[in-house]
Amino acid sequence: MAQPPSAVGLRRPPPRAGGHRVGARFAKVSLMENDKFYVERCLDGHPDDYRFLVRRYQPVLLAHLAGKLGHRDRAEEAAQEALVRAYFGMDKLQKPESFCAWLLGIADLVAKEQQRKESIRRRHESANPDAPRRCGAQAEEAPEPELSQDFSLEAAVAALPEAYRTVILLRYYGGRSCRGIAGQLDMPLGTVTKTLSRAYALLREALQRQTANEVQQ
Amino acid sequence: MNCAECRERLVAGLEGLLKEPERQSLVDHLKVCQTCRAEFKGLQTLRQRLVGDGKTLAQSSVEDEVMDRILREKNVRLKSAVQAGTGLGIRRLIMKSTVVKVAVAAAVVLACGAARFLWSGTDSGVALADVLAKVGQIRALTYQMDSRTKVTVPGMASMEMDMKMTWLIADDYGMRLDGTTADAKTGQVVAEHRVYLLPGQKTMLMLEPAKKQYARMVLDETLFQEKRKETNDPRMMIQQLLGCRYEDLGRKTLDGIEVQGFQSTDPALVGGKGDADVKVWVDTKTRLPVRVDAKMRMEGQMEMEYTIHDFQWDVAVRADEFAPVIPPDYKPSLADGAKAVAPTERGAIEGLRFCVEFTGEYPQALDLSGVMSIMQDFMKSETPVAKKYQQEVAQMKSQEEQLAKSMEISQPIQSLTMFYMTLSQQHKEPVYHGKVVQPGDVAQVLLRWKTGANEYRVIFADLHAETVNADTLAKLEAALPQ
Predict the structure, then answer these.
(1) Ramachandran quadrant class, B198 (left: phi over 0; alpha: psi -120 to 50; beta: rest)
(2) Which end of chain B is flanked by fewer CB atoms within 10 Å, N or C?
(3) What domains does chain B contain, in order, with CATH numbers?
(4) What is the distance in angstroms between the Cα of A88 and the nearest Cα belonging to chain B?
(5) Longest Cα separation, chain B
(6) Are B307 and B145 in contact (CB under 8 A)?
(7) Are B433 and B446 in contact (CB under 8 A)?
């Protein structure tokens, strides 16, 4: 009776020492390659590899954009737009190893565009109170924007100066260790922990201010 | 440790980056200092909040939406670019398209097939005759082949790939091949295949375990025999080597075995259209090859380096090793049921007709660069047939569909180029005038080759074929535009 193909093993002699093997150059690609590797793969015509960059940076982008936009769905929409724009603009990226910073820059631009559109829409609605609303016929009945789970934290992160924000985003939303961040941003490990320390201090101040404002209101 | 030192090390402590003495000092200080302990707890709370939010956001995924949007956007851009015209920027965009990648891949496969195809020759010699006699008695064998192929086409990035194959061949049952193809630059495996050549059904079956797909290709008698030739690789090599100039490299020890080497750099090994360097190492006791090292370069466009090793001769085989079972969860790929092209005169004429329909002219050349040029022209051509094809491809959602369409569309081209290579390999002196000949002229020689001492077969520019003598051919070719 015929066996299924997976069970039919071919004769594979054990490798001999010293033998010339072109196949020794074979190696499975690691999923933990650096950004530069994937950017170059995409530019070399392997668009599917962009998936790895999307996976790596989607939580970072979502946190960054949720903090800026406040709304979970709008953050997702903006993250998609930023990732698509980044893909098609990749050949303009001068330093592939700086993909993350570049992507966050694109995300900032997308967020600003969204905010501008939203502001125009609101102005239009207030100038034309009888015009149909996007979220229901009556403004009073329109649902409140659905804030991200920890909007106050995300907003505080988004408001951090860039150097601190990048380290926080990579550490907590990008799943990087301190050593990983040091490697990616090409800085000493001590600088990473000092930056984190300062970022924590700034975040705590911002969160305390938020709480104080809420209490006042 | 004082409070300032403690504050300085809190984050490193939280991250587990402190060495043991420092960590212990920190712990000791926190035990006795309430202010620092409060600071530490504040940091811990913030950290937990960040970790929690990070975990929540990690559950959201925009990956599929992003990849779908990219695919859709690429199709739109590709279509616009093709309609807008040519240029470096557009070429770069086109090179990113799946369709062209598939076309390039098809050309690479074609080129690799051609390199192996050219390993057929029947002239006999003397020095290796006893080796040939010995391998001729073999009924079943297995061996491994590792290759690196580099294809360079003007105006495009070169492609380089590594293939690793294990062959099992039995005269009575057929052939089976397990292979892996990897991108040579990155080492990433891009394809895994298991291929069976089934003599009883005149069929090639290809299983792709990673995709759980299969494809059956029906071969006609001519092509089936050619495929069988290809699979008899080591035996054909010895036979081919005997028909070429070669030298004895003497004896040496290879992997503990005393071997005698034979080397040939005769360009005839690649049909006279490139460089070759082939070394065959034969066991002095058994008179059977133990390793083959080869380097080939064809017309500066394709380089192939391969090693064949781990031969096992006259191995015991079972019929069921050649009887593939398609697992029930495998699905037919879009290529399933395709009819393989045969390198015949009729197929070549169909290929030439196809080029005219698609691009309005004949290809400039029938070598690898010619094939690539045709594939590129398809994407830029304004002819109705080409536009229809471009629209069909643009509407296809999956890469699988685009792959199947490209393979289907490129079949007549494969037949044409294979036919031309066959003529070269058989020393039939083929000459192609596609650069100067315009479609439709009944008296212009488009492709000709020698069929006898004073006899040539000619395909004219209106795609009819005739047999003419040498004088007539000379007059016809003298009348061709310069």
Answers:
(1) beta
(2) C
(3) 3-78 (no CATH), 98-332 (2.50.20.10), 346-478 (no CATH)
(4) 8
(5) 110
(6) yes
(7) yes
For B364-396, write each residue's pLDDT tens digit: 888 666 666 676 676 677 777 777 777 777 777
C-alpha separations of A80 from A104, A157, B70 in Å: 12, 20, 10
Q: Which residues, other chains included, contact B421 with Cβ-Cβ below 8 Å and sequence gap of 6+?
A: B114, B117, B118, B271, B343
The helix/strand/coil state of B298 is: strand
Residues in A touching B147 (Cβ below 8 Å):
22
Q: In this complex, which of A10, A58, A153 lies closest to B53 when CB atoms are compared?
A: A153
Biggest distance spanned by C-alpha atoms of chain A:
84
Q: How far apart are CA B178 and CA B192, in angstroms?
A: 8
| Mean pLDDT (chain B, rounded) | 76
Q: Does B253 touch chain A (CB under 8 A)?
A: no
Q: Within the 403-432 window of chain B, which residues sit less than 8 Å (CB to CB) from chain A?
A: none
CA distances from B460 to A87, A177, B344, B439 (A): 48, 70, 16, 9
Cross-chain residue pair A28–B53, CB shorter than 8 Å: no
Residue B380: closest CA among B43, B80, B48:
B80
What radius of gyration, in Å, describes the C-alpha atoms of chain A? 24
Please give the model's pTM, rounded to 2 decimal places. 0.45
CA geometry: angle B199, B232, B163, nearest 5 deg: 100
Amino acid at B418: M
For B301-346, the pLDDT digits (tens) are 678 888 888 989 888 888 888 888 888 888 887 667 666 666 788 8
Residues A82/A91, Cβ–Cβ less than 8 Å: no
Q: How far is B42 from chain A (nearest CA, A)?
A: 8
Pairing of strands B302-313, B331-332: unpaired
DSSP codes joined into one string, A35-61: HHHHHHHHHTT-GGGHHHHHHHHHHHH
Complex ipTM value:
0.73
How far apart (Å, rounded) are the C-alpha atoms in residues B8 and A194? 8
- Reduced to 3 states (helix: H, G, I; strand: E, B; else coil), residue B314 is coil
Residue B400 contacts A, CB cutoff 8 Å: no
